[in-house]
Amino acid sequence: MTKITIEVHNEEDKRLLIDLLHRMNLKYESVEKEQDDLISIIDKGGDGKSIKNPVAWQRNERKHRRLL
Fold first, then answer.
1. Residues 6+ apart with CB under 8 A from 6
2. Residue 48: helix, strand or coil by DSSP?
3. CA-to-CA distance for 18 and 14, rounded, in angstroms?
4. Looking at residue 4, what is its pLDDT?
5. Which DSSP letter does residue 47 get?
6. Which residue pairs, CB below 8 angstroms and at least 24 apart, start in 6-10?
7. In terms of Cα–Cα distance, which of 3, 9, 33, 37 is closest to 21?
8. What pTM did the predictor assign?
9. Which of 59, 55, 54, 37 is nearest to 46 (CA)?
């Protein structure tokens, strides 16, 4: 078995990729970036206070999102 991680930056690409995975009858797991970050903070025993500048962090996290 091989696992591949793919980072998708917009919803349209995500839908296309998921449709393709369904057509190929492949298993997949969709994890949102924010969820990964929160899980990482929780796993480290932190409560988010380790982020020195929350506004800058949030801007950086969202810079690749398409505005609707």
1. 17
2. coil
3. 6
4. 86
5. -
6. 9/64, 9/65, 9/66, 10/65, 10/66
7. 3
8. 0.45
9. 37
Q: Residue 43 and residue 39: Cα distance in Å, rounded?
A: 6
pLDDT mean for each 10 residues of the chain (68 residues): 85 91 89 67 68 83 75
* Residue count (the chain): 68
Report how far residue 24's alpha carbon sits from residue 27's, in angstroms, rounded to the nearest whole number.
9
CB of 56 within 8 A of CB of 32? no
Query: Are 11 and 27 a contacting pair, CB within 8 Å?
Result: no
What is the structure's pLDDT at 63? 81
**φ, ψ for residue 32, nearest 5 deg:** -75, 145
Q: Residue type at 20? A: L
Rounded Cα gap, residues 58 and 36, in angstroms: 14
